[in-house]
Design goal:
By secondary structure, the protein is an alpha/beta fold. The protein has twelve helices and twelve strands.
Length: 290
C-alpha cells in the first residue's frame, strides 16, 4: 500500500502539484480527467498548466512529464453522470479516460455513482442503466489493464444494495469499488455499520479516498440524515470517529495493495495559512498507519 493525494486537495494548499507532493512527502497523485480529456500538469510552465490526453503523442508527452517529475498517477477521477440526457458522450468520455490510463500504466479509473434523477427512479432501473454503461465501457476496452472503481458517492452510491447489485450485474473482475472511507458515515450509517460495509466491499476495492468526520458521541451509532452537519463535523483524518488503522487493516487483509488517497475536506474549517500543516499532519498519520 502506498500514499497519494487528490489533485484538488493538494492544490488548495500549494501553488502546484509538485510542491504539494514534495510538501507531503508523496510521489503519487489522483488526477481528475476533465471533459476535454485534460489533466493538471504536475509542474506547470507558462502556457502549459494542463495536458490534453487526446492523442498517443500527447499521452506520451505527459508520460515524459511524469517521469521528469518522478511522480506516478494512482488513478484518474471521472465526474461522469450515467443519468445524463447525453449518455453517449458520457460513455465516450469514460472510454477515453480508460484508454489514456492504459497507455500510461495507471491501474484504476474512479467512476462516479451519482446519476441525475437517481432518487426519482427505482433501484432496479438505476442498477440496470449503470451496469449497461459499465459493460459498454468494458467492451470498448477489452485489452485494457485498467480497473473501474465505482465510488460510494452520493445518495445511491452509499447504498450497499446498489453496489452489490451493480457488481453482480456487471460480473467483471475489472469492476469494483473506490472505497471512500468517510462517505458511508456521511450517508448516515452508524459507525459500527460503516466498518461492516467497508469489510464487505474490501475484496472489490480498486482505489480509495480517505476522509473523516467527528460527530458527537451520542449520534455516532444512530441513523442520521444524509450529510448531517457535514461542514461542521468533517475533520482531519487523525481527529475523526473512523479508525483508519482499522480500515487499513481490513483492506490489507482483503489483499488490497494500491493507494490510500488523501481527501481531507475539512480545510475550510481552518485559516488558510494552516492548510498545509493540516495536510502534512494527515500525511504523517498515513505513514504511521501503513
Amino acid at each position: 500500500m502506498y500514499l497519494s493525494v487528490r489533485d484538488h486537495i493538494a492544490l488548495c494548499a500549494w501553488p502546484s502539484l509538485k510542491e504539494g507532493l514534495d510538501g507531503l512527502g508523496f510521489d503519487a497523485v489522483e488526477l481528475e480527467f476533465a471533459r476535454d480529456n485534460s489533466v493538471f500538469a504536475i509542474r506547470p510552465s507558462p502556457g502549459k498548466e494542463r495536458f490534453k490526453l487526446d492523442t498517443p503523442n500527447a499521452i506520451e508527452e505527459f508520460r515524459k512529464h511524469l517521469d521528469e517529475n518522478k511522480v506516478r498517477v494512482s488513478a484518474f477521477l471521472m465526474s461522469n453522470n450515467f443519468g445524463s440526457n447525453d449518455l453517449e458522450n458520457e460513455i465516450k468520455w469514460t472510454i477515453n479516460a480508460v484508454k489514456a490510463a492504459d497507455m500510461l500504466g495507471i491501474q484504476a479509473v474512479r467512476i462516479d455513482a451519482i446519476m441525475h434523477g437517481e432518487k426519482d427512479q427505482p433501484l432496479e432501473h438505476n442498477v440496470t442503466l449503470f451496469a449497461d454503461c459499465m459493460k459498454r465501457i468494458l467492451d470498448a476496452t477489452p485489452d485494457a489493464r485498467v480497473d473501474l472503481g465505482v465510488e460510494n458517492h452520493g445518495y445511491q452510491g452509499n447504498m450497499p444494495e446498489f453496489l452489490d447489485q451493480l457488481l453482480e450485474r456487471v460480473g467483471s473482475p475489472r469492476v469494483g469499488i473506490t472505497i471512500d472511507t468517510g462517505n458511508f458515515y456521511w450517508r448516515g450509517h452508524p459507525l459500527s455499520r460503516v466498518y461492516e460495509i467497508i469489510e464487505h466491499f474490501a475484496p472489490y476495492c480498486k482505489h480509495t479516498h480517505a476522509k473523516n468526520i467527528n460527530y458527537p458521541p451520542d449520534i455516532r451509532e444512530v441513523e442520521r440524515e444524509m450529510g448531517y452537519k457535514y461542514g461542521e463535523y468533517v475533520s482531519p483524518l487523525r481527529d475523526g470517529d473512523i479508525d483508519h488503522r482499522r480500515v487499513v487493516a481490513i483492506l490489507k487483509k482483503a489483499g488490497y495493495e494500491r493507494d490510500l488517497c488523501l481527501e481531507d475536506e475539512s480545510l475550510g474549517r481552518w485559516p488558510r495559512e494552516e492548510w498545509q500543516s493540516v495536510l502534512k499532519r494527515d500525511a504523517d498519520f498515513f505513514r504511521e498507519i501503513i
